[in-house]
Design a protein that fits this description.
The protein is an alpha+beta fold. It contains 5 helices and 5 strands, in the order αββαβββααα. It has a 5-stranded mixed sheet with strand order 1-2-5-4-3, with helices on both faces. It starts with 13 loop residues before the first helix and ends with a helix. 29% of the residues are buried.
Length: 173
């Protein structure tokens, strides 16, 4: 099985897929620790091409509490936890749709503490793209180009987007 990077034209059903998963996550993670569940990433930006993977940010009061409580809950709804994630100190990262629960990724869930500066930047970046169509289109074109160049290398694909993301983040006030 390969885990290829595939970029698809915008799918108007992506917000609905997020809402469905948000409802499920809200029910399963219901606690005083849960603050908010947000749709982010390219599938949250209307009109742009993206990997058809719904990125979800679960914002919590305490990441330590989440680490102690959420793993079995997420596994109960077919998410696979990636403890070897390079950002494991600042988030919990889960993937849905990979074997044994499916054939390819459908959702990524990032569980972060409310004061996590990297995720605050990610939310601002998506908001900027939603409000700046020309920049969003430029980003979509870049992703299509990079996906064809790095089809089987997710890290190289992600790394190659970094300069664009940094440039935009530096322009956001």
């Amino acid at each position: 099985m390969t885990d290829e990077i595939e970029i698809e034209p915008y799918n108007p059903n992506w917000p609905n897929l997020f809402q469905e998963e948000k409802s499920l996550l809200s029910e399963i993670l219901k606690s005083d620790n849960l603050l908010e569940i947000r749709h982010f990433g390219s599938t949250s930006v209307p009109g742009i091409s993206a990997k058809p993977i719904i990125d979800i940010m679960v914002i919590v009061k305490s990441l330590e509490v989440a680490k102690a409580e959420y793993l079995p809950l997420m596994e109960s709804i077919n998410y696979i936890y990636w403890p070897e994630d390079h950002l494991a100190d600042s988030r919990m990262w889960f993937v849905k749709g990979m074997p044994p629960y499916g054939k390819k990724r459908t959702h990524h869930v990032h569980i972060v503490q409310e004061d996590n500066p990297d995720y605050i930047k990610r939310l601002k970046f998506c908001e900027y793209l939603r409000n700046n169509k020309a920049i969003a289109d430029e980003y979509a074109e870049l992703k299509i180009k990079l996906a064809s160049k790095h089809t089987n290398d997710r890290e190289a694909y992600t790394d190659a987007k970094a300069d664009f993301i940094i440039r935009i983040n530096n322009s956001i006030t």
